[in-house]
Amino acid sequence: MDEAVALECQTIRHMIEDDCADNGIPLPNVNSNILPKVIEYCKNHVACY
């Protein structure tokens, strides 16, 4: 995922800003059915700017 897209999610943004994203970012509360929808939403949001 592009960093600009990842930065749309506040949880991921904070982990990147705190240098906690070197080995991946765990998202334990997001299941595999929801994650693609979240990514698509973030991509669309970035495209609007």
UniProtKB/TrEMBL annotation:
Superkingdom as given in the UniProt entry: Eukaryota
Pfam families in UniProt: Skp1_POZ (PF03931)
Sequence ranges assigned to domain SKP1 component POZ in this UniProt record: 2-46
Keyword set includes Flavoprotein: no
Pathway in which the depicted protein is active: Protein modification; protein ubiquitination
Entry keyword set: Kinase, Transferase, Ubl conjugation pathway
GO biological process terms held by the UniProt record: jasmonic acid mediated signaling pathway; protein ubiquitination; ubiquitin-dependent protein catabolic process
GO MF annotations, alphabetized: kinase activity
Family: Belongs to the SKP1 family.
Protein name: Putative S-phase kinase-associated protein
Classification of source organism: Eukaryota, Viridiplantae, Streptophyta, Embryophyta, Tracheophyta
